[in-house]
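REQUEST FORM: STRUCTURE PREDICTION
Request ID: SP-0412
Submitted by: Lab K.M.
Chain count: 1
Length (residues): 182
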Amino acid sequence: NLTLTVNAKDLKKIIKNHGRNVLINLKVNDNENTVMLREIQKSIIKDDIIHADFFKISLKEKIEVTVPIVLLGDAVGIKDGGILQNQLRELSVKVLPTEIPDTIEIDISNLEFGEAVAVKDVEVAPEIELLNDPDEIIASVIAPMEEEEEEEILEEEGVEAEAAEAEETKEADADEEEKEEQ
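STATUS: Completed
RESULT:
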């Protein structure tokens, strides 16, 4: 471990222009090292970088990183009134540092009601190994709920809430009676 100071504006500019999986040549005491960002901490108030962890990498060994998913196209099911559910926003991959993609693009234009895209459906370059569960759902198109279904769900939740409240009141009354007997 080595503690050092870097220019936060320069680091923010690098991240903005190249993403978080960018290779950075970091020069420390006349030694140049290829590093990547591991973690960034930002100020809650100003969104300024207050701390960053770098890790030194070898350009010849595969590493595990997460890559953002970009959904392309408008699903057929959405055009027909369906709702797109985006369950996964990034994929974990194992790849050489020089081969890390900026994003993984997935075409969803053929998705209809009840259909989904899973990790096993994603096509990536042969040098990229996907680490997520192959059956994990990335995006799906569901039919919108009918107003009657929504009302029934709300009514059921209301009945359940009333029953739970009545049970809590009953338990509180029993506890009160027990205290009075003591």
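NOTES: The radius of gyration is 26 Å.
Reviewed by: T.R.
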